[in-house]
Amino acid sequence: MTLAATVAAGLFSLTAVPASAAPTDGAPAGSRDAQACEDVKLTGSLAVPPAGMAVRQQVTIGPDCKPRLGPAQLVPKSGAEGAAAGADSTTSGAVASGTRQVRSWSEMYDCCNIRMTGLYTTSGWDADGTAVTGVSTDATQEWNREPWNAGWSLKSSGKGADCLTGCAVSNNEAHAEFSYQGIFDPSGAWYANSHRSYVTLKADGTASCRFEVELKHSFIGWNWQHGCE
User: Fold this and answer.
1) What is the pTM of this model?
2) Among residues 216, 178, 213, 214, which one has the least CA distance to residue 197?
3) What is the rounded distance in angstroms from the CA atom of residue 98 to the CA atom of residue 201?
4) What b-and-e string marks burial along 8-37, b requiring 16 or more CB atoms within 10 Å of the CB?
């Protein structure tokens, strides 16, 4: 089966809860001229692409606070631009045994394409075709700071797995919560981002990524970029 056919069959998916327009009378002074969106919640799923490739997708907050889903794109793992999902390629098959690795990322950008917050995971697992025999997952976080010790901050983070060995499937989860206090909101009460990433690792060597993002307040043009490789 070609990758194009697999994509058409539902390799990539995303759901969104349309946010409500937030009243701006309580917004920071620098934000009252723009339409604020309140309680944006997004989820997305991506299957791990063929070896040497990465799959990524962007979701942008559009007018009326409705998320706009961009196309899922396949690109070389180096990150070079170009190859869209549907290129003439074959899907990666399951492996009978050996060690595999999958990396995921979830990033929030503002309307000026400045990355505000990000959560990244790297999972490695051994599988013999019938069971997962070993799992290791690392999670890291990044956030944008401003001069004078201001900007985004990491409030909390963590990771976990329901099974590390002797299982058909290992479900791995990482999360990070961020707060903001800086030039756009000195009070620190208006903005908050949370990221959750889930990586499913199977005994047959296949894997998938799932993501959740929640934004306390956001604006038109903010965009969520997430991917799996």
Assistant:
1) 0.82
2) 213
3) 13
4) eeebbebebeebeebeeeebbeebeeebbb
